[in-house]
Amino acid sequence: MAVPPVELIDPSNQTTHIRGMSERHYSVWAGLFITLALAGFAAFAPLPAMWGINHLLFLPHAMWVVFGAVTFVVILLAAWPRPNTALDSSIDSLSHGLFERGVWPRLAMAAGFTVMFWLLRTPTHFLGDGYTLIASMGKGDSYIIKWTESGTILLIRVVQSLLGDYTRETSLAAFQIVSIMSGAVVVHNLMAIIGRLVSDNRLRLFALIAVIGSGSMLLFCGYAEYYPALWATATTFILLSLRYARTGRGLTWVAASFVLTCLAHLQSLVFLPGLAYLIAQVELRQKWHMQVGRTLTIIAVAGAALAGATFFYMYSTRIEFEAIFLPLFTGRSRSPEYAIFSLKHLLDILNQIILICPLILPVIALAVHNTKKATLDPVHTALALFASGSVLFLFVIDPVIGLGRDWDLMSLTILPPMLFLLYRIGQIKADIPTRVVLASGLVGVLVTGLFLAVNVGAASSESRMHELLRYYGAKNRSGWVILANYHLENGHTDQWREIGKERDSYFPEDQKLVDAYELLARGQYEQVLAISRELITIDPYRGDYYQILGNVWGKLKRYDSAETNYRTAIKLIPYAPMLKNELGQLLLNEGKFSDAVNLFKQVRSFDHSIVVVAEGLALGYYFLGFSDSAAAIADTLFMADRNSPGGHLIYMIVAIRDDDQQAARFHYEQFLLYGKSRSDWSPIKEHYRYLVP
Fold first, then answer.
1. Model confidence pLDDT, tens digit, residues 544-585
2. pLDDT tens-digit readout, 324-373
């Protein structure tokens, strides 16, 4: 292999060279040193607002020694007096072996990372919805199907079915298997993508380090969430799209991978403009010889206008849609300091970028330092469109889990802009010394390794979770609940009490909600109405405030108002079975039996263990005249509990309709015997007393 020419330093021009560090690489080295300085300063200060890089804050002091050693080596590399041709040749050979030897190096790299992901399995699942998802998948046959990621949920369920019963243990194992195997696919795909985007040996190695030396690698360390599978399908889609853009072949595979990516998570719709552009460019222009420039512009403008009009209509008419997006300048009542253009949100974006791409500063330096213009080919434009949609998603979406800007959901939004920058670097053939490649590798591995180290240790991940909760304050109530329950389940009663008290200090209105339910039980409805309205004023996006308002309107027999508030609550909490049960019971009282049956069936589709829902469904069938269906529901209750009070109650009312007094009396007596703990025991006893002579 040819050895790259050695750059000669003119001793008469020492203003442009300092001990071998070329002026054109000052910005790259500055990016590396700024990254290291931020990591040290954020932990030394300490600054919770720098959550994307303050990982040392939560780790043992021994990690400071590692940090110092790596920093010292990077300084030595920056100050090295002259190029080393032998080292250059070795790096070039390594890059050539990784990218020019077919698929086997990629498979070997993927296998190596698979082992690493398995060894670094995370012991806690705080940074996403992990504990909630494990509980949902561990409930047996019933589980929550979220429409935004239905394909991934099905995949997890299939893997879980191969492991045995549907328990929390098999649920966790299924998530871990999908997470780790997705990581193997992602590593393979990223190597293939870099091989297509960049041709220079050292730039390829630098680009590979930039995309794999990433906090997103935590997603594949047994992470209990749906996003690892999204990364696997999305990187497959990007890889196939790049091949299609270059060769014009494989549109069917591109389309199929896009569908799979959308099934993994509808976030993937951000790739749609780029995909449409590729199809127009390759199929219409190259294969059909059509002039699509003006047509494509008209379609793009019309599509943007339609999308904008649809957005504003949905935003102004549907509260659940409005809640997804951040306000522009002033946040909502719960967190008024958090909006799209607020300082806290913009700082979160910077943290997110550094967390997912620790080498972002040297990448930007390489991409913009050279004034040579990049070629506007289909790959360049498609990547620009992928990046634009991703950045828009990153800025405007307000995820429910606010911690760390919901880093797992947003992690994929950083990849397309990174690939766009790396492609530009490859196009302008930016020069990069071996020393920069080595230093970048050290910095990328260090910062990413520190983030992984925090999250593969139980104590450090607990501390980081608590710090994030304090930083975001009242923005995310469920996070406080998850951490408190985690300590309770692990027997840490002192920590549980501490977290509970701290949580209550951020959410004083929770006590008002408790008081409202106590007043409701005592029949003081006007006071409940006043408290409910006050709570909605405090936070108009919290579903359980509309729930109690629906409850009290139902008690007052204001059914229209009750139903309106219940449906608003369900829009904000779409997966709350007991909330839907309350609406179902209201519909029964209104005489809307078909609507009630449909709602109860919907609840039972993801949780058929709730007895009161089964009873409501049976009553709906009964009032619709389907006594056999009602009796069948009672049979399912008796299968779970042979003395089921609800089963006896259903059989009793069916027997009354059939004018079978003996059967009705028997089931009435059985209900009185086994249903004493029920709140409706006394009213039912009085109402059906006539059955006993």
1. 999 999 999 999 999 999 999 999 999 998 888 889 999 999
2. 888 888 888 778 888 889 999 999 999 999 999 999 999 999 888 765 66
Q: Which two tokens stand for residue 574?
A: 């779409």
Residue 644 tokens, joined = 């089921």
- How far apart are alpha carbons 295 and 293 in whole angstroms? 6
Instruction: Supply the pLDDT for residue 15.
Output: 38
Range 346-375 burial, b when 16+ CB lie within 10 A, else e: eebbebbbbbbbbbbbbbbbbbebbeeeee
What integer pLDDT is reported at residue 288 of this predicted model? 52
User: Measured in whole angstroms, how far is the alpha carbon of residue 333 from the centre of its chain?
Assistant: 24
Compute the distance between CA of residue 28 and CA of residue 176 in angstroms, rounded to an integer: 37
CA distance 399 to 401: 5
DSSP summary character for residue 144: -
Structure tokens at 122: 């995370």
Asked if the model's pLDDT at residue 260 lies above 60, the reply is yes
DSSP output for 296-333:
HHHHHHHHHHHHHHHHHHHHHH-HHHHTTB--SSS--T
Q: What pTM value is reported for the model?
A: 0.88
- Computed over every residue of the chain, the mean pLDDT equals 88
What is the distance between the alpha carbons of residues 618 and 647, in angstroms, rounded to a whole number? Answer: 9
List the single range of 122-126, 127-131, 444-448 with lowest mean pLDDT: 127-131
Do residues 637 and 612 make contact, with C-beta atoms less than 8 angstroms apart?
no
Which residues fall within 8 angstroms of residue 242, CB to CB, at 6 or more apart?
193, 196, 197, 379
**Any idea what the Cα angle at residue 411 is, between residues 406 and 417, rounded to 5°?**
135
Residues 191 and 654: their CA atoms lie apart, in Å, by: 66
Residue 430 DSSP class: -
Task: Check whether 609 has a pLDDT greater than 70.
Answer: yes
Question: In this predicted structure, which of 183-197, 211-225, 388-402 has the lowest mean pLDDT?
Answer: 388-402
**In 573-688, which ranges are continuous DSSP H helix?**
577-590, 593-606, 611-623, 627-640, 645-657, 661-674, 681-687
Q: Tokens in use for 109? A: 């790299």
Tokens of 77: 């590399």
Calpha distance 57→18 (Å, rounded)? 35
Answer whether residue 10 shows pLDDT above 50.
no
> Rounded to whole angstroms, how far apart are CA atoms 140 and 135?
10
Residue 680 CA to residue 262 CA, distance in Å, equals 47
Three-state DSSP state, 18: strand
- Closest by CA position to 540, among listed 511, 513, 508, 568: 568
Q: pLDDT tens digits for 106-119?
A: 999 999 999 999 99
- CB-based contacts of 393: which residues, under 8 Å, 6+ apart? 267, 270, 410, 413
Tokens representing 267? Answer: 């976030």
Q: Do 211 and 246 touch, CB atoms closer than 8 A? A: no
Q: Is 684 exposed, middle or buried (0-12, 13-18, 19+ CB in 10 A)?
A: middle
Q: How confident is the model at residue 5 (pLDDT cuts 50, 70, 90)?
A: very low
Question: Which two tokens mark 459?
Answer: 């104590």
pLDDT at residue 188 is higher than 90: yes
- Spatial separation of the C-alpha atoms in residues 75 and 35, rounded to whole Å: 13
